[in-house]
């Protein structure tokens, strides 16, 4: 597509429930990133996918967080047994692979855990 | 690891006045630096980048940034601010294959 698409745009869930967040990157972009933006905070790196390589999961805050990318395109970020501290905006970005390229971001999913 | 710092949480300017948002960097080797802007309830939008070449980089919406190697700075500037420039601005540096972001600076332009 023309841009990075994320769904849903807003999600309210009860504490303890599982949630799935979806990211559809720009066609042809081999690199895909998930970041988390908490209220009043900067952007926290979560996970990185590049082509068929093993993802870099070093930023995932706990084992309740996981992500996958199917067919080198769409990615799903899953949070199990959600906690209130998981409330944040989850941003997805995609990029052409290489040091000189910046990202194109999606509009994000605002997750609220009540 | 590469990193950037934005020393100001907030910047307030009057419309028509010059706008500067500060960023300093800490890198080993040559830095790849970026500025992004986030409008309310929106994702981040790319403004400009410095890879190599001229120290003055021009970007979207009339913004420019000056790369200063001796001061390790990459400040974002606009000669005449608009109310519509009110937003959250992030400086970022390429850290291996990912971007590391500053904490962000909230810009408010008053009419």
Strand content of chain B: over 45%
> What letter string, H or E per element, gives the SSE order of chain A?
EEEEEEEEEE
Largest interface comes to:
A-B, 24 and 22 residues
Order of helices and strands of chain B: EEEEEEEEEEEE
The residue fraction in helices of chain B comes out at under 10%
Q: How large is the share of residues in beta strands of chain A?
A: over 45%
How many angstroms separate the termini of chain A? 33 Å
Structural class of chain B: mainly beta
Mean pLDDT of chain B: 93
Assembly classification: heterodimer
The main pleated sheet of chain B reads as:
6 strands, mixed
Choose one word for the global shape of chain A.
Answer: globular
End-to-end CA span of chain B? 41 Å
Low-confidence segments of chain A: none
Shape of chain B, please? globular
Describe it.
The complex is a heterodimer of chains A (114) and B (111). Chain A is built from no helices and ten strands. In chain A, the strands form two sheets. In chain A, strands 2, 4, 5, 8, 9 and 10 form a six-stranded mixed β-sheet that branches. Chain A has a four-stranded antiparallel β-sheet with strand order 1-3-7-6, with no helix packed on it. By secondary structure, chain A is an all-beta fold. Helices cover 0% and strands 46% of the residues of chain A. In chain A, a hairpin with a 5-residue loop joins β6 and β7. Chain B is mainly β and 111 residues long. In chain B, the strands form three sheets. In chain B, strands 2, 5, 6, 10, 11 and 12 form a six-stranded mixed β-sheet that branches. Chain B has a four-stranded antiparallel β-sheet with strand order 3-9-8-7, with no helix packed on it. In chain B, a hairpin with a 2-residue loop joins β10 and β11. Chain B is globular and about 40 Å long. The mean pLDDT of chain B is 93. The interface between A and B is medium-sized, with 24 and 22 residues.
């Amino acid at each position: 597509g023309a841009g990075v698409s994320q769904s849903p745009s807003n999600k309210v869930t009860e504490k303890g429930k599982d949630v799935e967040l979806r990211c559809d990157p720009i066609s042809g972009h081999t690199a895909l990133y998930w970041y988390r933006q908490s209220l009043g905070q900067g952007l926290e790196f979560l996970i990185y996918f590049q082509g068929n390589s093993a993802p870099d999961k070093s930023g995932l805050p706990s084992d309740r967080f996981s992500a996958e990318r199917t067919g080198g395109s769409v990615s799903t970020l899953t949070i199990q047994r959600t906690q209130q501290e998981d409330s944040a905006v989850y941003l997805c970005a995609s990029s052409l692979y290489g040091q000189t390229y910046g990202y194109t971001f999606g509009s994000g999913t605002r997750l609220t855990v009540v | 690891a590469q990193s950037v710092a934005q020393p100001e949480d907030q910047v307030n300017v009057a419309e028509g006045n010059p706008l500067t948002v500060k960023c300093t960097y800490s890198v080993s080797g040559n830095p790849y630096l970026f500025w992004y802007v986030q409008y309310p309830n929106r994702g981040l939008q790319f403004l400009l980048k410095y890879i190599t070449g001229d120290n003055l980089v021009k970007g979207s919406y009339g913004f420019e940034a000056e790369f200063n190697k001796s001061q390790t700075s990459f400040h974002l500037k606009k000669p005449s601010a608009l109310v519509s420039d009110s937003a959250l601005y992030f400086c970022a540096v390429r850290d291996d294959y990912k971007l590391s972001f500053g904490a962000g600076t909230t810009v408010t332009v008053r009419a």
